[in-house]
Amino acid sequence: MFEPVIEGVGVVKRFGKTVALDGLDLVVGHGSILAVLGPNGAGKTTFVRCVATLIKPDGGKLRVFGHDVVQEPHLVRSSIGLAGQFAAVEEAMTGRENLEMVARLFGQDRASTKANVDLVLEQMGLIEDADRLVREYSGGMRRKLDLGASLVGTPRLLLLDEPTTGVDPRSRIDLWDAIRTLVGRGTNVLLTTQYLDEADHLADQIVIIDRGKSIAHGTPTELKKRTGRNVIEVHVRDREDVAEAAKVFAEFGDGDLQTDASTCQVAVVVNGGTEQVSRALHLLQAAAIAVDDIALRPPRLDEAFLELTGHELQERSSDGRVAGLKNASSPDSIKA
Amino acid sequence: MASVAVAARGPSLFTSVVVIAKQRLLKVLRTPALFWTYTMQGVLFLVIFRYIFGGAIAAGELGYTDFVIPGILATGLIWQGMGGAVGITEDVAQGLFDRLGSLPIPRSAVLAGRALADTAMQLWSLIVMTIVSFLVGFRVHDGLANALIAAALIVVFVFAFEWVFITMGLYAGNAQAAQGISMILVPFTFVSSAYVPVESMPGWLQAVAENQPVTFMTDAVRTLTGGASAEVFLGHPASYFVLRSVIWSAVIVLVFGTIGVARYRRG
Ligand SMILES: Nc1ncnc2c1ncn2[C@@H]1O[C@H](COP(=O)(O)OP(=O)(O)OP(=O)(O)O)[C@@H](O)[C@H]1O
Ligand SMILES: [Mg+2]
Questions:
Q1: Ligand 1 atom nearest to CA at A45
Q2: Is A49 in the pocket of ligand 1 (CB under 6 A)?
Q3: Quick one: which of A255, A276, A260 has its CA closest to A320?
Q4: Which of A108, A274, B37, B219 is the most interior residue, by most CB within 10 Å?
Q5: Above pLDDT 90, what percent of chain A?
Q6: What one-character DSSP code corresponds to residue B80?
Q7: Inter-chain residue contact B94 with A105, CB threshold 8 Å
Q8: A54, B31: Cβ pair inside 8 Å?
Q9: What pLDDT was estimated at residue A239?
Q10: What is the mean pLDDT of residues A121-133?
């Protein structure tokens, strides 16, 4: 009898000629964190805004706890909390006042407003700053307050659109902890991110979307297994050696080759693990190429895309990198 | 379906409007630049018009001071309204409107709360302007009751025009555009009876000036405060202008309220 938390079937949303969601299928089960992963313009925010009933899909079916977002938006709104892509807090109010406003607008009476606000301030570690104007908050504190504001109505589904973008690494870990704690208490979470490692750390399920379509889904481990292969990346010392190193790698690698003369970097997809690094080093030495740094790392999101879909994600910029993709995790590198 | 039994939570329209109005009021009160704009802008215009044009323009027996001050009081709201339009774009840009839109509150509450708060700030501005008006020589000639009706009418105009500015803010997209679009209304205050008698304009402009809402608004306030000499000068009794200005206000609320709320719902 349990309806899925979110059930999207063939969701379509157009903005003029732009097709932001192009028949997106997506199901979120109970008690989990689902990460929607995709590059800039993939349709992540558009999907979140559809679920939050801020915009109406042009086609398909979209239900939240069994309620259609178009037919019964009020029922959907009673069960969700939204933290949008930009911290939506009022600068001229204190942290406490911001939370009180949202709690009141959830229909809570004064007593439960106060109790919930205190609880959220505590959870977010904002008690000491609760009565300062948000104007004086740092970016990370604003983000926390924003997350708190999405919680204060005790929603059954939390929608977090890039919750850690623009947050320093420490606050990022804090936010991750806060999100995980929530799920421990039974809140369902849908979050969007451009960071593979964020999805990896937080999510039970990942849906990768590109150009408004779901192109792969599964647990983080499943997705990585499906990608299977690793990437060897080398920094050569002298720029003149880049072409030579590329030749070596082209012969020895098992997949897509990337060269970047500006950073003296060459990378190639390989089957296998660490043993490939020593093989690569050996070949480079044989070719008398001096190496600064060599690393074996899992594929970045863009490389995973390529592996999973067989097509390039987006136009590449001149330096060979895919526009709009980030990977905050550093490769586990071996200094040469 | 089991889900049908779930009752919708959410506050009443009244609570929602009050909570949202409070947010906007706190914003203005705690942002000195905004607060002082509401407090001083109207007063500046008032003093400038009173003393710069005071000697140059004749307004019959009424005298220019008693002629122009009702005009300033009735049109100050248009000069100040762009603050409301800009505020909307800021809240949209900040994502505050997204948050509010995701909450289980009546859709109209968000905009109505803004309109209410901005009207309250304009009321404050009107009070300051009225005090200064009397200091620079303005007098009412038709009794306190009519003067109070005039003040109440201005509040009605303010509320009506708030919807124009809210709608402009929603369509503008960013603060600069909102400011630009709001400026469109400023010429309307000049092509009206607000600052100079309509008779001083060329014929084609007179036709526009005589039939647009700002003129009816101004002349309603002018006849209610100026009494018989204003009615003689303008050629109609107060009731003529009051009726037309109220009808215009209703039309403005209806048209812009509908457009604005529709735009807001569309997201
Ligand atoms: N209000 C809008 N009007 C017109 N086009 C829009 C609008 N919102 C989104 N789009 C377009 O829809 C597509 C998807 O945008 P969306 O914001 O959903 O992407 P995203 O995955 O959230 O990207 P990002 O990672 O940059 O936040 C983009 O091509 C974008 O230009
Ligand atoms: Mg986005």
A1: 22
A2: no
A3: A260
A4: B219
A5: 40
A6: H
A7: no
A8: no
A9: 84
A10: 92
The Cα B233–Cα A197 span in angstroms is 77
Q: Give the pairing of strands A213-218 and A205-210.
A: antiparallel
Among the listed residues A329, A86, A303, A313, the one whose alpha carbon sits nearest the alpha carbon of residue A198: A329
Q: Are the CB atoms for A147 and A124 separated by under 8 Å?
A: yes
Lowest average pLDDT, out of A4-8, A78-82, B56-60, B241-245, goes to B56-60
Mean pLDDT over residues A76-82, rounded? Answer: 93
Average pLDDT, chain A: 84
pLDDT for position A228: 64
Token pair, residue A86, equals 């930009």
Task: Return the C-alpha torsion angle A297, A301, A306, A308, nearest 10.
Answer: 100
Question: Looking at the whole model, is its pTM more than 0.90?
Answer: no
Chain B, 83-102: which have a CB under 8 Å from a chain A CB? 93-96, 98-102
Question: Which alpha helices (DSSP H) does chain A contain, by range?
Answer: 44-51, 73-77, 95-105, 110-123, 139-151, 169-184, 196-202, 220-227, 242-252, 275-286, 301-309
Q: Could you identify the residue written with the tokens 């990942």? A: A206
DSSP letter string, A6-22: EEEEEEEEEETTEEEEE
CA–CA distance, A83 with B28 (Å, rounded to integer): 24
**Partner residue opposite B102 with nearest CB, options A77, A101, A104:** A77
Could you give the maximum distance between any two Cα atoms of chain B, in Å?
A: 77
Q: Does A266 or A317 have the greater pLDDT score?
A: A266
Q: Which residue has the tokens 């997506």?
A: A26
Task: Output the six-digit token pair for A329.
Answer: 């995790």
A319: three-class secondary structure by DSSP: coil
**Which H helix or E strand runs over B216?**
helix B213-226
ipTM of the complex: 0.85
Q: What percent of chain A has pLDDT over 70?
A: 87
Residue-wise pLDDT for A15-39, tens only, equals 999 999 999 999 988 878 999 988 8
Q: Which residue of B has its CA nearest to A65?
A: B3
pLDDT of residue A305: 65
Which residue is listed with tokens 């320093």? Answer: A168
* Neighboring chain A residues of B92 at a CB cutoff of 8 Å: none
Spatial contact of B99 and A82, defined as CB atoms under 8 Å apart: yes
> Over the Cα atoms of chain A, what is R_g?
23
* Tokens encoding B113: 């709360």
Whether residue B10 contacts residue A77, with contact meaning beta carbons closer than 8 Å, is answered with: yes
* Residue indicated by tokens 């192009």: A22
A193 lines ligand 1 (CB under 6 A): no
Q: Is the CB of A57 under 6 A from ligand 1?
A: no
- CA-to-CA distance for A202 and A5, rounded, in angstroms? 18
User: A88 near A48, Cβ under 8 Å?
Assistant: no
Ligand 1 pocket, A18 CB below 6 A? yes
Number of Cβ within a 10 Å radius of residue A168? 13
